[in-house]
């Protein structure tokens, strides 16, 4: 479904991503792991168009998307959540999710109908799925960090993506919240048939839900494979797992 | 009752206020009728700016240009052409919106301070043209004695006309801000990057927001001509833009009706304190400092906070 080929991105002289490869098949849950500064977030920013690549290719459903701006990539069916909470703090929880839903339904430019009556059902369904229904009237900025991270995912769901990209979905969460989030991700993948690409620091999480794992170091792909292949790879052991 | 006005939910109170304002003219001295009408015109201008600044999060520092363009358009149509008068009235807002489209088209390519700087530069360019082009705009003399339809000949009739147009515009603005587009605009203000990531073409929405706001600024410009029957280059001067920016800040730019309050405060200060001292802006400065420190959400924002319905 998604192929990233030999992608390169430098900031001045620093090569944040230096020829990484990634393949994501339909319906898969794929994890990207690697030490801090390996280029995971940069890679995601390249895929979703927040950054422009220097060279290489990003192909989604047979179409080269590496030159498209973020909002068009989103229309193709890829949405994402962000590592640092990136919500609309002044809007309500409902309003936050509705922004995505309205955009997906191409009704955002409607000028004269009251928004509170549009796309209500879809929005509520998403809130129910992620378990934020009871907080829908709260101002998003006042939520706890864990809830804001969940809201991140909920906003992304509004676009009914085929590929959902989650950048450290559990960063800064308590162990219970982390567990709940992982359950949510698994459930989303099953219920909605979502393809999910995420990166994560916590090895337990990665090994418990990912079907395919890509390991990055210094902007390069060391290996992509299933759990066993990754575990048994010498280079990975040295670079990453060996340290634990 | 006050709570309801503040929350703009109390339709009843708003209607009551509207009726009071309607029956006021025969009861108060002419001077007050004039000042009230001027406050309405300025309120509409401040409200239009707030669509971009408060709800859209764009630093439209030179908004008065569109007010001036609206006013000059109607003035020029009424004095230099023999077209029916209503065409002038309609052309004002439309030309203002087209000017907004052209300036905005460049500005939305930049963000924050760069947006503001470019906006001031392009706006000042238009001011300079109006200020120097004597044969067409009258330069710094302006245009005076603009003929008005007989229906608007008396001050009271102008007052009613301005009040009714203001109310219509406010209703339209309210609907726009509560529409999906309004939501998207406020979402862009809060987080443009995230909006792009959910598929919103940020620049296009910002541009549309500017066009709508400049249209209403043009309406305000037309209303100014209805009231004053003259136009002058100061209408487009950047100092005036700063003044309406302060109105939004003072009233509270995250509220709907805040700018009206801000406009009323500043116009009242200018009129009543300005009578005693030409340094009335000094008092404005002190008030502004106090507001920024103690009421960062503006006067209206402060009252909204106090009268917020307790959610339990």
Blueprint of the fold:
The complex is a heterodimer of chains A (244) and B (312).
Chain A: E1 2-11, E2 14-24, E3 29-33, H1 40-47, E4 55-60, E5 63-64, H2 70-76, E6 78-81, H3 93-104, H4 120-130, H5 145-157, E7 163-167, H6 175-192, E8 195-199, H7 203-209, E9 212-217, E10 220-225, H8 227-232, H9 234-239
Parallel strand pairs in A: 3-8, 3-9, 6-7, 7-8
Antiparallel strand pairs in A: 1-2, 1-4, 4-5, 9-10
Chain B: H1 2-7, H2 11-23, H3 30-53, H4 64-80, H5 85-107, H6 112-132, H7 134-137, H8 155-178, H9 180-190, H10 192-197, H11 202-228, H12 238-251, H13 258-273, H14 280-294, H15 298-306
Task: Tell me briefly what this model is.
Chain A is α/β, with parallel strands linked by helices.
Q: Do you know the CATH architecture of the largest domain in chain A?
A: 3-Layer(aba) Sandwich
User: What percentage of residues of chain B falls in helices of 4 or more residues?
Assistant: over 70%
Largest sheet: number of strands, sense, barrel closure of chain A: 6 strands, mixed
On the 0-100 scale, what is the average pLDDT of chain A?
87
Quaternary class: heterodimer
- Separation of the first and last Cα atoms of chain A: 33 Å
Rg of chain B:
19 Å
Number of strands of chain A: 10
Q: How are helices and strands ordered from N to C of chain A?
A: EEEHEEHEHHHEHEHEEHH
* CATH class category of the largest domain in chain A: Alpha Beta
Uncertain stretches of chain B: 1-6
Secondary-structure content class of chain A: alpha/beta
Provide a count of the helices of chain B: 15
Tell me the series of helices and strands of chain B, N- to C-terminal: HHHHHHHHHHHHHHH
